[in-house]
């Protein structure tokens, strides 16, 4: 399933180390698009150019403080992901909570990095997340799965399933989607892949694939969606070098 992607990754790895300024410009491009699309999927109305100027420290008139904070927080969360990859830190529940804390910082500090104490429902989805009393148990099971069975999977499979299982648990009141996409890219980046973009225009296919995974435990559609974006990011890097 991943033969073509593996080949492209080998081609990219063979060209390392990549030119310094090429890497920096690719990083800036992907991280801007990652921030814009991840926030737009959740309803943030800033355009990609408005997102860019917010990242540069400029306030956009007519937009809410929350929308500005979502951009700045996402930037900080990406920096944290980079730190984890650079330091080769082991995956942990503490790490997940730290990521979520960054995502909700200044937006809802009472629930930043704190598991929800209320039942929630995912708008438009058939799947209903577990009640609060089950969250700790299911998060422990997620970590156990990651440390065991998941290590036998291809990194794309592992990253996609980590995202899907996490967002199915929906452990936090808010910010689960952004956190799940950060976890997906964290897993890919650990294995030397560039980050991927789940684009807002593909939101319906993304939601449908997740709902299918949650209701039938068939992850194929979601893994395929992630695989296409991995290949697109690899193609971008290969075209630049």
UniProtKB/TrEMBL annotation:
Family matches, as InterPro entries: Fido, Fido-like_dom_sf, Fido_containing
Domain called Fido: residue spans: 91-228
A Pfam family matched in the record: Fic
The organism's place on the tree of life at top rank: Bacteria
Name listed for the protein in its UniProt record: Fic family protein
Organism: Cytobacillus eiseniae
